[in-house]
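Quick one: structure tokens for this chain, please?
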Amino acid sequence: MALPDTPLRVEVVSADGLIWEGDAESVIARTTEGDIGIMANHEPMLAVLVPSAAEVLSTAGNREIVAVDGGFLSVAQNRVAILSGYAKMAQEITLVDAERELAEATAQLEAGHNDSGVRHHFDRATAQVRAAHRASARH
């Protein structure tokens, strides 16, 4: 068992590779069951993520925000893995571009194009907008 003051080791991984890793005080992510907060010594678990903006409070005091278009959250032995087909750090996302992408995806859905590619585009754009909003709210 980890010591009470042992930080969480967090990795955010997408299909493109490692997006972020480091030690953290806490992680907040949105699952199919709702938001969940993870702190040191959390019980092991596996959860399905929905498109959202996950937050990591690093031990350095930085609030790292990452857009994910779904995926999985794994917690075991003071390690947290966020695994998603798409993940992008909020500081790499511009709100204007994310909102434009969301508007395009929404227009396609409203026009009746509801195939998996369009739905995936919508989910990714939704996650980017949420991440960009959260990142801009911290300043």
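The longest strand covers residues 17-31.
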